[in-house]
């Protein structure tokens, strides 16, 4: 009869096999859109339900039609990137305006709702750690209102935005594209840290899932080779391919690449224009529990520790 430790070793081996055989790219053109109580139109991109064995986080896309709002609910922590459209989010009864390129942080169990007040659909991407929270029995999700058409009287009753920061503890909730600053890092053509690897850059306090950065790879260039915890890379613009674990995976605009935990990766822009990608990861969580590690390679191929 097998002992518990042997069973652990076997489980570890099986986990690696599942990850090695899993898909690496979710195609934007192949998304399966559905209507939910929360969203008029939503599609899971990266999640166990779509065949990706993640470390507990997931990524979805959603759209809010003109004159509509999302449902109102609360759950675990969430990070949102607004691709298109404009409006505002109400979080804990406070208003936070958003525009294309705005990043939004939603604290653990804070009730929130998004309203489209513009003339075009609002498109946004959402990163959550729902599967991790649910598996450790911390995942309470409750629907307070369903999505629907805006009531002009309700919209008019909301006061103007007072601050981009949460009054509870002063953390940042919203940051617009024009507020994003270029870093001094030279690993890509340009890097803009949003919530950062720690989740605590620019006033944010993300601890579970964070939209850490946006990086630009110039036309016909390659990024450096590196390895760190699991990350999702969403192609906002451009096309190219990623080398992940020694294999090539082509991508184009609106695709997303999944890089498993500590698997070597490099990104190559094969197009004639700059490729713009942004990163969603659980690095903030791992840093908070002391489990984050990152490595890179020097020009002569030597592995070096980047962050302990």
Can you give a write-up of this model?
It is built from four helices and 25 strands. It has 308 residues and is mainly beta. The chain has two domains: 24-157 and 166-177, Sandwich (Jelly Rolls), CATH 2.60.120.10; 185-307, Jelly Rolls. A six-stranded antiparallel beta sheet has the order 1-21-18-23-16-15, with no helix packed on it. A six-stranded antiparallel beta sheet has the order 2-3-11-6-9-14, with no helix packed on it. The protein has a three-stranded antiparallel beta sheet with strand order 8-7-10, with no helix packed on it. The longest helix is centred in the first third of the chain and has 18 residues, at 4-21. The protein is globular and about 60 Å long. The model has no long low-confidence stretch (mean pLDDT 87).
